[in-house]
Amino acid sequence: MPIYLNRLLVFCSLGLLILLSWYYMLYGMTMNMQPVASWSTSDIMLLFLMWGIMMAGMMLPSALPVILLVERINRQRQQRQASYTPTMFFAGGYLLIWTLYSLAITLLQWWLHHLDLLTAMMVSENKLFIGTVLIAAGIYQFTPLKQRCLQLCRAPLSVISSSWSEGYYGAIKLGIKHGQYCVGCCWFLMALLFVTGVMNLQWILILSLIVLAEKTLPRGKLISNLLGLVLILLALSYFSGPSIQAILIPI
Predict the structure, then answer these.
(1) Which domain holds residue 241?
(2) Percent of the chain scored above 90 by pLDDT?
(3) DSSP of 100-142, one letter per residue?
(4) How far apart are CA 201 and CA 121, in angstroms?
(5) Can you say whether the dihedral through the CA atoms of 165, 94, 103, 181 is positive or negative?
(6) Cα separations (Å) of 130 from 15, 110, 124, 191, 240?
């Protein structure tokens, strides 16, 4: 297959996956998901599937520049007739990490539900829990771990060059390593859906755009710090009066 067709195939395949994920969130998730009361095995599996598709739709757009960077490196290596790391397996390793995160947050949701911190409609009505999550998410934006992971997500070449290995297994390992930094950067932002509502499409879109802005726009560290400040102020406002609930949680 010509080299330029490889790049087109990667871009179109990932673009189709993103479109299908958002189609599910727009037309499948809110129509098919019912209030979770019994927490049967099928409930847990459906929630895990929902989280997995959501993470693909929310995180892949911000990962596209890195995936296309790997594709460009592969194209250059193919032109030199050198061995290379298949790009789609790199993307698969990246998605594998977010799939594991989806499993973890599904189990966390089950635990929070049994602590009566989440309703059957997958949103919290506990004032202390909401304020604590907002403050913790805001503080996390300023931590060295968050800033280091964000830096490596924004400038991934050092990770790619230091961890590059050939073949399918090497591609998956490289995707997993990059995905670990992305999870470290964004995991708390995704957990904010427990506050805004797990199936709140408005906030799913807002959080997706925030992640994209942090990773791709100039002055990403400033964006991250401003977001942290906003989250802390929202928490303080929420503790001082219930009106903030109308902003964060749909009635």
Answers:
(1) 3-248
(2) 50
(3) HHHHHHHHHHHHHHHTTSS-TTS----HHHHHHHHHHHHHHTT
(4) 14
(5) positive
(6) 34, 17, 7, 11, 13
Q: Which of 59, 47, 65 is nearest to 22 (CA)?
A: 59
Tell me which amino acid residue 28 is. G
Residues 195 and 109 sit within 8 Å (Cβ to Cβ):
no
Give me 206's structure tokens.
């807002």
pLDDT in tens, 29-84: 755 555 566 677 888 888 899 999 999 999 999 999 999 899 888 888 777 777 77
Report the pLDDT value the prediction gives residue 215, as an integer from 0 to 100.
Answer: 93
Helix, strand, coil abundance in the chain, percent, nearest 5: 80, 0, 20
Yes or no: say if 86 and 9 are a contact pair by the CB < 8 Å rule. no
Cβ-contact 227, 214 below 8 angstroms: yes
Q: Is the pTM of this model over 0.90?
A: no
For residue 121, pLDDT over 90 is answered with no
The count of domains in the chain is: 1
